[in-house]
Amino acid sequence: MGRHRNNATILSILSMGLGQIYNRQFIKGLLFLIFEAFGIFYFVNNLKDALWGIVTLGETPRTLVKGTWVDGDHSIFIMIQSLITLIFFAIFLIIYVMNIRDARKIGIEREAGKTPHNFVQSVRYMLDYKFAQAFLTIPAIGILFFTVMPIIFMVMLAFTNYSAPDHIPPTKLVDWVGFQTFKNLVALKTWSHTFYGVLIWTIIWAILSTVTTYFGGLLVALLINQKGIRFKGVWRTILILPYAIPQIISLLVMRNMFNGQFGPINQYLGYFGIGQIPWLTDPTIAKVTVILVNMWVGIPVSMLLILGVLTTIPKDMYEAAEVDGATGFQKFKIVTMPMVLFTTAPTLITQFAGNINNFNAIFLLTGGDPVKGDYQYAGATDLLVTWLYKLTLNQNKYNMASAIGIIIFIIIASFSIYNYRRTKSFKEEDMIQ
Amino acid sequence: MSGRKARNTIRLTASYIMLVILCIAAVYPALWIILGSVRPGKSLYSKTLLPESFTLDHYRELFTSDTYLFGQWYMNTLKIAICSMLLGVLLTLLTSYAMSRFRFRGRKNSLSILLVLGMFPGFMSMIAIYLLLREFQLLDTHLALIIVYAAGAPIGGTFIAKGFLDTIPRSLDEAARIDGASNFRIFWQIILPLSKPMLTYMALTQFVGPWVDFIFAKLILRSKENWTLAVGMWDMVSSNQNTNFTLFAAGAVLIALPITILFMFLQRLLVDGLTSGASKG
Predict the structure, then answer these.
(1) What is the pTM of this model?
(2) ipTM associated with this complex
(3) Which PROSITE patterns match (chain B) (predicted)?
């Protein structure tokens, strides 16, 4: 009793694949063994360095010895190499555990008198019953290396002093500093002033841009959807144009149109005797401009969405309201608005979260300018995300940028998770659809 | 009764006037840039909207000059966009198929993880991806861009695609399974044909991504002959936008045109894609 399961388990703990071979699954066992051989070969060479690297981040910088540079440790390369090795190690351990589990499971089946699958049967079994898990490993590996690993890396950076001018490899080393970066960001006067200023503008921007595009879209949709308006499709097709033009082009074009000196907008205003308005160079006016331009970009999407919802509202609801003697406005208030809001509420929150991160609208239009003298590398229209961009690519203040990134993530994650839960409750209610 | 009719006429007239104004506002920038691109000279300023004479010199210059390799950039962009579109759509579709049709341990958690991952600002990962590609010696290659775009595709697309696949009745694939079809066969012969609208939507968004990405592509592609359109465009803007506006206009038209035409043709599908992703989560 229990003989097969214990033997198989112990053998596969000793070395991958032994349990499977004990279970007479030779090909599978052999594959596991080969895998382990490769793994051990790789980790013997790399694991110790990786652990050393992740703890110390390098010990000797590049130094000048008798007029020539002698290469030392490049902290950031060491960090990413260590991280990659450790991720490989984690995958290795997971597969190891799976191997033990598999051996044990088959051992139990053997005790129950079943013959273990041969290799072909195992493959078939996997494709039929474990298809999802087997298949999902491909996207999972892609996501692991191109999304998860970078995120871990950047979170780690936030806890180091990797920033210009004093801690840029290869001539200098980078060290762990704990929460110092976050402390500086919220408490050190020079940084915190910029941080709170940019944060407040980011939130104002997100609220205003979401509200303006949403209600703008609603108005346009209602306008088109009125009884008696002809050529509805034509209007919709024309009005959708701003959405169809790639933002990189439309926003750069807008930047030229709002050009204070030569742009056509000031030119036309000039015909009406209105002087030159510094659309993009005055801090306050620039904020208004970006919101206006964002309306131009964003209203078509909301319009499309709401037009779609409007067609799903059952006609009899309006008829019932008419029988009760409702006026046009009452019909809108009692029937249209609740139905539209109910269906589009999740999108509204998604758009809000998206606007917090709306890099294009700001970067392509104003580049965050006009510059504010008392800000650290930020301008009047900079959002957190464009500030992050500037800190990373122009100023090389990587640790600060990472800390800001984490904060943006926390803000957006809280909204989105709230939203996600709501959508699920929507689904369970099944009121609409 | 006539009072009501009059009010109706006023309302409709006002609405038509509003719509016309909105349409002018929507179309004007596009018109302005197109007319700007065929205007002789270099300046941003022009007295009238309609130029006095037309010229195609700026377009010619883009394709023949030594500083702007527009023909080359077009081919690069097309190559990257098509490859990453195919790969990205395949990955997304299979991921959402697995998420929608199979019930396995960790499924809900994987979905939540996907959702959370989508919330990190993209620039946060840029540096790390740059270093990673450097480790694999893939810098300045198109392959790097294709891999990164395609690998990122499931994060954004899975939710929308899953929402769509959930609407395809499960009884269809159950019937096929009873007839002995394998998972792959069900996928190819039942799910794929039925999800054409979703496929188009995803393909379009995947195709547009590389077309407009100027930040990540700029970081990875160092040599000029490897650039994509967006990188070239951005370079043109940041180096001499004000000195040569009409050339910028011609470039802008060339980049925007294919995407805009695609969007206009597929707008119906876009609505479906947007709404199915929105209401079903």
Answers:
(1) 0.82
(2) 0.84
(3) ABC_TM1
